[in-house]
Amino acid sequence: MRLYSLYKKAINLLRLLFVKFRWYSHLTFPWRRCWNIRIGRRFEIKQFPPPLGHLKVILGANITIEKDVWLKGSSLLSIGSNTFICRRTVIGCNERISIGHDCLLAENVRIQDTDHQFESRNIPIRQQGIATAPIKIGNDVWIGYGAVITKGVKIGDGCVIGANSVVTHDIPPYSVAVGVPARVIKQRGDVL
Ligand SMILES: CC(C)(COP(=O)(O)OP(=O)(O)OC[C@H]1O[C@@H](n2cnc3c(N)ncnc32)[C@H](O)[C@@H]1OP(=O)(O)O)[C@@H](O)C(=O)NCCC(=O)NCCS
């Protein structure tokens, strides 16, 4: 059993080193505690082309990122310690996205701080540029399966976001929010 866990740790470390080697200038993590960072297969960092900026991803300690997670864009994305990101989650970052510590992101979550502009009918949408606004997700937030977080949203500490919700407005701390668009249905239990 101990041998198996050593083997798993070694595989994790090798994968992390490979990931670091592949995206050297994009990815930062605490080397001293890198034993506890787990990154799944087919993890991708996708840098958007110039004139957009440089995508920088800062990971805390003890993070798990399951397979098929994509981080893409052209600016700064930070993910706090002890956060767990389930498979097929996509985070697109062209201004600033910060995810706190101890968060749990279920499968197929989409966090995107960018929209395409579409004011003009005469120019194809893909040529009209983008609009961005930063996203901040607090500590100890659980985001359910398939939820979408749109640009400019702040989710307070301790929130729960229901499965398949679309969060378009700020959610105050310790709220449970569900639906499209996500509305607060209750507060989590009080601490006495
Ligand atoms: C958000 C959630 C945690 C709420 O659970 P809960 O506190 O037990 O809430 P309830 O089941 O009592 O639901 C309260 C109300 O919200 C509604 N609701 C709950 N989840 C909803 C959702 N995801 N979307 C829309 N409405 C939802 C319920 O229908 C209910 O409405 P009603 O009062 O009109 O009947 C849960 O519904 C959920 O979405 N969990 C995510 C599951 C998941 O993604 N797991 C992945 C594992 S990491």
Question: Percentage of helical residues?
Answer: 10-25%
Give the number of helices: 1
What's the domain count?
1
CATH fold assignment: UDP N-Acetylglucosamine Acyltransferase, domain 1
What is the H/E order?
A: HEEEEEEEEEEEEEEEEEEEEEE
Describe it.
The protein has 192 residues and is mainly β. It is 11% helix and 34% strand. The chain is built from one helix and 22 strands. Strands 2-5-8-11-16-19-21-22 form an eight-stranded mixed β-sheet. A six-stranded parallel β-sheet has the order 1-4-7-10-15-18, with no helix packed on it. It is globular, with a radius of gyration of 18 Å. Coenzyme A binds next to strand 21.
Please supply descriptive tags for the structure shown above:
mainly beta; about 190 residues; 8-stranded mixed β-sheet; 6-stranded parallel β-sheet; single chain; binds coenzyme A; 22 strands; UDP N-Acetylglucosamine Acyltransferase, domain 1
Brief write-up:
With 192 residues, this protein is mostly beta strands. Helix content is 11%, strand content 34%.
Topology, please?
Blueprint (H helix, E strand, L loop, with lengths): L1 H21 L4 E2 L9 E2 L4 E4 L8 E4 L4 E2 L4 E4 L2 E4 L4 E2 L4 E4 L2 E4 L4 E2 L4 E3 L1 E3 L13 E3 L2 E3 L4 E2 L4 E2 L4 E2 L4 E2 L4 E2 L7 E4 L4 E5 L5
Parallel strand pairs: 1-4, 2-5, 3-6, 4-7, 5-8, 6-9, 7-10, 8-11, 9-12, 10-15, 11-16, 12-17, 15-18, 16-19, 17-20, 19-21
Antiparallel strand pairs: 13-14, 21-22
